[in-house]
Hints:
The chain is mainly β. It is 7% helix and 49% strand. The strands form six sheets. A five-stranded mixed beta sheet has the order 1-8-7-4-5. Strands 11, 12, 13, 15 and 16 form a five-stranded antiparallel beta sheet that branches. It is elongated.
Amino acid sequence: xxxxxxxxxxxxxxxxxxxxxxxxxxxxxxxxxxxxxxxxxxxxxxxxxxxxxxxxxxxxxxxxxxxxxxxxxxxxxxxxxxxxxxxxxxxxxxxxxxxxxxxxxxxxxxxxxxxxxxxxxxxxxxxxxxxxxxxxxxxxxxxxxxxxxxxxxxxxxxxxxxxxxxxxxxxxxxxxxxxxxxxxxxxxxxxxxxxxxxxxxxxxxxxxxxxxxxxxxxxxxxxxxxxxxxxxxxxxxxxxxxxxxxxxxxxxxxxxxxxxxxxxxxxxxxxxxxxxxxxxxxxxxxxxxxxxxxxxxxxxxxxxxxxxxxxxxxxxxxxxxxxxxxxxxx
Length: 330
């Protein structure tokens, strides 16, 4: 009986001391709250936003402190906090402390920005001297290339061909296109008025360095433009024709399709004169015959497949004297 009495006395005096010690301590508990980083793969010299989430703590009634490399950059209510990144490979060490109901919980994480970019190379048509890049075609393909410059903390660059690339299209990982050295992927164009999201995660073979990037593909309506082919200056790509007057004995026009898929070869081009099929191919030569002046209607249709096509109509006038004879294309 005396032994049991002593145990009761000890519990009465020891348990309150244990509870109060827990309330005053700084608990490094990585399960009390979680931290997310946006974007998932920060780029060098960018801003990474840290957000916290907890099912155990009342974050609405808590205080958060964020320190970078030992220097406090934020202290206040729990909210997303931006952290500045340094150069590629430079480690940024962050400590987050949340105080709730008198108890403090902390987590530390290291963020290492890496330089990764992905470039879209649409497989579509443009004219030979076009200074821009092709546009994403309807019912076509786009080649997406990852440019990775992964560095360790000492600035050593990892050979891009030795890195592992994991490609994801619209949330689905493409295993057949992923692996070591697979820096490019061919992606089908999205449907009209929709977008396709492509992302890549790049990792060193030991898993120590990770980076990534993403982009959104948006297809555009195809189009075709008509240019004059000057006999001395060549094709005048600096000026598209909306109407045209033929003042010489003959005139050559050139049609350039834009944003039509070229996966199956060059787009098919058909010319029509006054509604009648006249010629196929990029160029057409027009020769007014007889005397007098008149008007005609020229149109061109560029197509790739059965449903992807673009049309351009060009009103023509010709001749300088009275009368009015026909016009034909050769």
